[in-house]
Amino acid sequence: MAANETSRTARRAAATRQSIVEAAEAILVAGGPPALTLEAVAERADVAVQTVYNRVGGRSAVLVAVAERAFRENREYMDAAYATPGTPRERILLAADAYARFALERPHHFRLLAEPPADAGSLNGIADLVDEQNAKLTAALRDGIADGSFNPDLDPRATAYALWAAMNGILALSWRADRLHVDPQDVGPVLDTILTVFTRGLDART
Fold this sequence. Notes:
- By secondary structure, this protein is mostly helical.
- The chain has 9 helices and no strands.
- The longest helix is centred in the N-terminal third of the chain and has 30 residues, at about 1-30.
């Protein structure tokens, strides 16, 4: 009986946490990070502010929970890209497209991943998620080196990190408030350019 009660309590706690994160996500999508306060989340989830603290944590923890949720959803698209039959180059380009679509379709979520809240737990959690995806990119690069299509002198891990950083930098242009700002709908050609330069640089030397 005690075990059943513990299980029921755990399920209720998990359900409450999910409703809090869903409420936070809805607020983020509607108003961006400035609109996301613990009071707003508590009101939308119909719980006390202390419950938000107890089930998720402070504002940074709530933001990261939303980002992690979005990243897990995006993982399905990324995994599908890497699992698609084709050359390593084709899989990498499909993955880059999935990453860009996620960033452009869910800009508030992406910004949380690119600029996570500045506390150690949040930073480590987001870094783990990024490392997971970069490891898949590294594996695809190693496949290309193994089959002779990519330059064997490249360091797969460093190359994966460079592509990730370059794409983040380009996608972040839409956040700028100065004349260097690029509207999200105009980011595509810039991304295409960096991917062209990147993939040509992968080619094995003849």
